[in-house]
Design a protein that fits this description.
single chain; mainly alpha; 4-stranded mixed β-sheet; about 70% helix; globular
Amino acid sequence: MNIAVQFGNPFILIYLIGTFVSLFINMGLEIIDYRARVKKGGTLPPELADIPAAQQLFDTQKLEKICKYENEKFFVWIPSVIVNFFVDIALIIFGFYPWIFNLITRWVGFPSDATTAFLSFGLFTLLASIPGEIVSIPFSLYREFHTEKKYGFSNMTVKLWIIDQLKDFILTLILGSILIYAAALFFVKCPDNWWWILAAVLIAFTFIFQIIYPKFIAPLFNKFEPLPDGELKDKISVILEKTGFKNDGLFVMDESKRSGHSNAYFSGFGKSKRIVLYDTLIKSLTADELASVLGHELGHFKLKHITKRLFVLIPLEFILMLALYLLAQNPNLYTAFGFSGISASNVAQVQFIGLFLAAAIYGSVSEILSPLINFTSRKNEYAADAFAAEICGTSEHLILGLIKLNSENLSELLPPKLYVFWNFSHPTLIERIRNLKNTDKN
């Protein structure tokens, strides 16, 4: 089959323009952030000037170190995003995806039943992902073994990195194969209704994954020990009792064997929920500060942020899948990207290709949704902060905890407002402190 990408086709134009505009937006925002860092990155914000702990943690050397760390990440990001941009465009222009599809059809035949559809879909997904994975490896290794180690964050060894990659690949292969087989079955058996069935399966899979992840998947990568009795456990238990948060236990994760970054998270769903604290976090914060940080996370639960988000995301999942389904029925979508021999009579047999192409088009233009999504997220973060201050009786411990985490993670203090508006799912440290102080006044 001849491969001829139709550059005048609206579908390919949307993809190419969307990909270029996304690169332009991201590159522009990063340059704005870099220039702001050069101009005022070494300045302690006024909101921190009256906090003794902040003055100690953000001395001149620390502010300089934060700028250098952020700059190094920026200078690695530039070639990474440019290389990925040109690889993505080249794969489209030179017909890589039609080529691997033609190759697969010679191996297993044109998809006609569940078995050939599964093999075609699975092989296509695997082969299509290879270029991106190959390109990402050098940058990933450089960030991990140069930048992160240089600034004292990475404790990763080459052996552990390889083991992690193998485990991740095997898990992705197993779980991906299950989903791909289900999707292939729906494409063949329910060619006109697969969109809502697949959306329902993906939603159900997400919930099931949340249940099995804490007990069966996470332990493959890290050790989880119950939080020992003591002051920290007592303070956390008090907060859990106040919020009515039912859980499957408090655990400490050995994050320090890989990284020096600190964090805490909830995992699981329903009665399987677990509270996980990084061992690095326990070393960084006092019991009161850590309890306040955890109170913030519990605020999301108590204020039903997750539930409200699900009420929005679940209908959107069906709407998005319907849109992808409708695009996948259009033969012009396939010919736009160089797939020949696909017409209205056989398009139902290759809808997995249409789903892939439609998702690629959506991904190229989805950047414009970032501000809206991040605005909602930041609003919830403010509310969770206020909840933590209320349930702990003071905002002081949370403020100190946030300052320490920001300092230890070398997070930027004064990113430009436009950069925050577009990219930040969480408010900046300064914005959070300002909001907490206003909460205290009220």
